[in-house]
């Protein structure tokens, strides 16, 4: 309080409450003047619970000023003063505030609550969400009937208010999608429910250029998958392959179950020119081995190094390299070992 008297101005204040008596109404006016700012687009609310500003003295002060300066007029938004009583020191203060706000113009109050809600929830309230949701619906109806003032329409447009009920339905699906992702840790599958149909509609809308930038931004914010479910499944498989590689130290082989088969399919698609360039780029950046011959050569070099260090060949149970040697011998016995591989193994005197 003393800082206000000494000249400190407080920015961004649109309401003030007097809870302690001051020596004079002049001091109270000084405090009030340094809280509230002229030219603000918000209507200030002043609650005087200790009668620092009696209606008579303030009115007289304003009258004297207007008499000295005839050109000065009271602001159009000035509503006048309201008399109220407080029983006891600050008793039932919350009830008193509610009573006074109820007597004020309700529209600005609800408008401010709407702004706070949007900033907090990052969406507009639904009709079924209580008083604020009903108020929003009332504004939409009033605008359609032509009974909503241009000033109110302009204020709502300024904050990007959604006028169409369809926008509210879109936000309802958007919130349902967020809940679904949180609970299921995935996106709805094709044909799974109405939410999956809605997701597909958003994808098609973006491709056709009819989905608004605001909605695209909202969906991007939650990591929405814009490609078809098939692409999402590819990403999921690729992530599992990368996880396998980091755990095992090698890329899944044909005998490593579904992941091995998936890798073989990607190699086949690439040879046939049927694998998208974006997918090839992703796999190249991770160091994926496209040619199975490269894997064989890699193991062959490891075998040479092992023999140089140990002066013996690895046993079957010793490590992965021992298992690889066992596979080469079995392929040779079955007549399935490629001739160039056989020659390379014989060149280092590997016992087949």
Automatic annotation (TrEMBL):
Top-rank lineage group of the source organism: Bacteria
Record protein name field: Helicase
Task: Recall the GO molecular function terms of this protein's record.
Answer: helicase activity
Q: What taxonomic lineage is listed for the species of origin?
A: Bacteria, Pseudomonadati, Bacteroidota, Bacteroidia, Bacteroidales
Keywords, A to Z, come to:
ATP-binding, Helicase, Hydrolase, Nucleotide-binding
Q: Where does the Helicase-associated domain lie?
A: 105-161, 166-224, 231-288, 293-350
Pfam families for the chain: HA
**Biological source species:** Parabacteroides distasonis
């Amino acid at each position: 309080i003393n800082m206000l008297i000494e000249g400190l101005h407080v920015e961004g204040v649109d309401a003030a409450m007097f809870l302690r008596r001051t020596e004079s109404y002049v001091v109270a006016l000084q405090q009030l003047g340094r809280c509230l700012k002229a030219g603000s687009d918000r209507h200030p609310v002043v609650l005087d619970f200790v009668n620092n500003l009696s209606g008579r003295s303030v009115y007289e002060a304003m009258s004297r000023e207007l008499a000295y300066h005839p050109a000065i007029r009271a602001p159009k938004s000035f509503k006048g003063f309201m008399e109220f009583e407080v029983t006891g020191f600050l008793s039932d203060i919350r009830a008193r505030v509610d009573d006074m706000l109820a007597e004020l113009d309700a529209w600005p109050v609800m408008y401010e609550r709407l702004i706070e809600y949007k900033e907090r929830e990052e969406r507009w309230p639904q009709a079924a969400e209580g008083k604020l949701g009903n108020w929003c619906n009332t504004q939409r109806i009033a605008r359609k009937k032509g009974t909503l003032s241009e000033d109110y329409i302009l204020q709502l447009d300024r904050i990007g208010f959604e006028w169409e009920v369809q926008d509210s339905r879109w936000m309802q699906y958007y919130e349902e999608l967020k809940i679904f992702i949180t609970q299921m840790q995935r996106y709805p599958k094709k044909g799974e429910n109405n939410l999956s149909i809605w997701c597909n509609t958003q994808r098609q809308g973006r491709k056709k250029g009819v989905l608004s930038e605001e909605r695209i931004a909202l969906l991007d914010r939650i990591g929405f998958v814009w490609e078809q479910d098939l692409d999402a499944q590819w990403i999921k498989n690729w992530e599992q392959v990368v996880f396998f590689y980091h755990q095992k130290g090698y890329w899944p082989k044909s005998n490593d179950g579904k992941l091995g088969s998936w890798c073989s399919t990607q190699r086949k698609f690439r040879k046939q020119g049927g694998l998208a360039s974006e997918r090839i780029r992703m796999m190249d950046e991770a160091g994926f081995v496209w040619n199975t011959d490269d894997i064989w050569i890699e193991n062959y070099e490891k075998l040479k190094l092992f023999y140089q260090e140990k002066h013996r060949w690895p046993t079957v149970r010793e490590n992965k390299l021992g298992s690889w040697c066992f596979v080469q011998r079995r392929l040779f016995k079955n007549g399935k070992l490629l001739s160039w591989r056989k020659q390379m193994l014989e060149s280092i005197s590997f016992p087949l």
